[in-house]
Amino acid sequence: MRSDRTRLALVVVxxxxxxxxxxxxxxxxxxxxxxxAKGFVALGLMLFLRCGLVSFGxxxxxxxxxxxxxxxxxxxxxxxxxxxMLAGMCASALLAFVLGFLLARYRGxxxxxxxxxxxxxxxxxxxxxxxxxxxxxxNVLPSTIFGWRPADEWVRYAVLxxxxxxxxxxxxxxHRYLGTPLGRLAPALKDNEIRVEYMGASARQAIxxxxxxxxxxxxxxxxxxxxxxxxxxxxxxxxxxxxxxIFITILAGTGNxxxxxxxxxxxxxxxxVAFDVSPNTWQMVLGGALLVVIVFLPNGLWSLFARRKAA
Amino acid sequence: xxxxxxxxxxxxxxxAWLFVxxxxxxxxxxxxxxxxxxxxxxxxxxxxxxxxxxGWALRSGMPEGLSYAVLLGAALLVALVVAPLIERGIxxxxxxKDEVVILLITxxxxxxxxxxxxxxxxxxxxxIAEPYGLLGSFDVLDLxxxxxxxxxxxxxxxxxxGLAWLLGYTRTGKLLVxxxxxxxxxxxxxxxxxxxxxxxxxxxSLLAAIGGAFTAPTVSVVPGLGIEVIVxxxxxxxxxxxxxxxxxxxxxxxxxxxxxxxxxxxxxxxLFVIYFVMAMVLAFRPRGLFSLAxxxxx
Lengths: 311, 298
What we know:
Chain A is mostly helical. Helices cover 76% and strands 1% of the residues of chain A. Chain A has helices at residues 2-20, 26-50, 59-76, 81-103, 108-127, 152-179, 181-191, 193-198, 203-229, 239-252, 258-277, 282-296, 302-310; strands spanning 138-139, 231-232. In chain A, strands 1-2 form a two-stranded antiparallel sheet. Chain B is mainly alpha-helical. Chain B has helices at residues 2-32, 38-59, 67-89, 99-121, 130-133, 148-169, 171-181, 183-188, 193-215, 225-240, 245-265, 270-284, and strands spanning 137-140, 143-146.
């Protein structure tokens, strides 16, 4: 019953983006696309949060995805948005698969700290790699779609539409995954991992699978951000970027696959509006919002919707 | 030979700085089980307060020799005002929450404090070079080092030894050790755990503020100062073992020497190597080099 509603909502949102995109102001398209890119990462973090894990280093996979996309353009002149997202996904998923053997053994703050260390390793490497532009990063080729280069006024819409389509498919897949036995294990892992093991399930394996999925999603997000913004730099892998993703995930809550994307959009709006109005207090707004949500809405903004539906 | 001496001296100076910046973090974690991101904010607050107050005092004719006392006073001032405010005003309501959730709360507070600093001191950099140059410098082989660096080492030794003495030989310290081992039994035995938390948080934050205050003369004090310090401090205390005092010292020495060696011999690896060591320690000894195995609590 509820799952049908989520699928319906996903279709409605996708249709709205595709139909309203051409008439919406140009800057909203950019805002939306960046929100979708960050939403991918937050969608992955949501999987962790559902089993009580918080990664302070998910920017690692975001950054790997972005650099994989950037390198394809730099070395082979590739700029097809779907190829880039696929490349970002594969690169990050592969890395997550390898590192997952290590990280799946960790819980609580140690999971957070180890992922922080790993993301800072990448940051430390990129900052000192002159071939990749060190701290300046490098520019990414303008996006194309299946070899077609949209006219300048349509590029933003074309990128947004492609992003929305991929996000739609990813959200649908994750939604489906949440309904599988492996997906349903998450809240149980959060509550009592030992009992999960008594039931015959492997906690480590379940977390490893989530780790790879989350890494793949973050890789897509990174590649999308690279081709949307047109520039990448090591800052994408710094811990403050991971902090942003955590912010988005906590703000949105774990109730639904749409929540991370909504959270990312709210984050983008707070960021751009607060930054315009008062550039020196926008972090304060973010921090305050995060505090309020943690204290008063421990299940995130989405719980507001959920409660209303239940009533 | 000269390069080796440089590696050692730079490493020790950097270690001293790291130790002062990070030791409060391990104290707070040991007692309160909080991974405290606001630690970086206190570092930045200390640096800003020291730079502005010392600068003001020097301009209004204070003898330069007193500037070291003013640096310390500035750190005391911010820590004694802001830390109790945060602990009493916000954190104490959160102790029942999960470790990870408290970590996120301190992260939120860190974001807020970043902008509080910008509101108070603005975004243009502050400089107070006077205390740095005042003492002159000494030569080792052909290398020249300002004496000020010895003050940093002194601050590190004093705060480390002072903390060890406090924990081992004073009544408050012994009570604290009891709280570290078992909060509930301590409470049952009549220890005022609430007050211990307040004292610990204030003292830990004070150490961060001192770290910031004594670094202020050596750098330009700019927004975002705490952002890099907090993640470095994490590396230091994680390597030694969260909550362990000798661990923090060892972690600071390892990170300091390793970094100074890479800066001299392989500058490309400077940042990479710190977090590589951190990841290796977490991978093979997740609770740090200086920790005992902890029973799994269900």
